[in-house]
Fold:
Amino acid sequence: MLKVEQGELSELSGVSVETIKRLERMDGLLSANSKTLDALQRALEADGVVFLPENGGLAGTRLRRDPPANIRTRIARGRKVEQKDGER
Structure:
């Protein structure tokens, strides 16, 4: 969705790369310190992710309609990388 590498998310959130890797390997609900989860959520929200409440259905995420400039740059950068990879 954001094309954020683990190292970059670590820098944005202050959460260690090892913790992010551990959380990514988990199935179902994440088991982590609430401060860790809050830091990750704040970092993702700052990059344009909206967390949707369960509200009778499934919880989820989506990107804001008008994401911040830093995410537009990252997405454009990701498209360029994908195009280069496809040209090989």
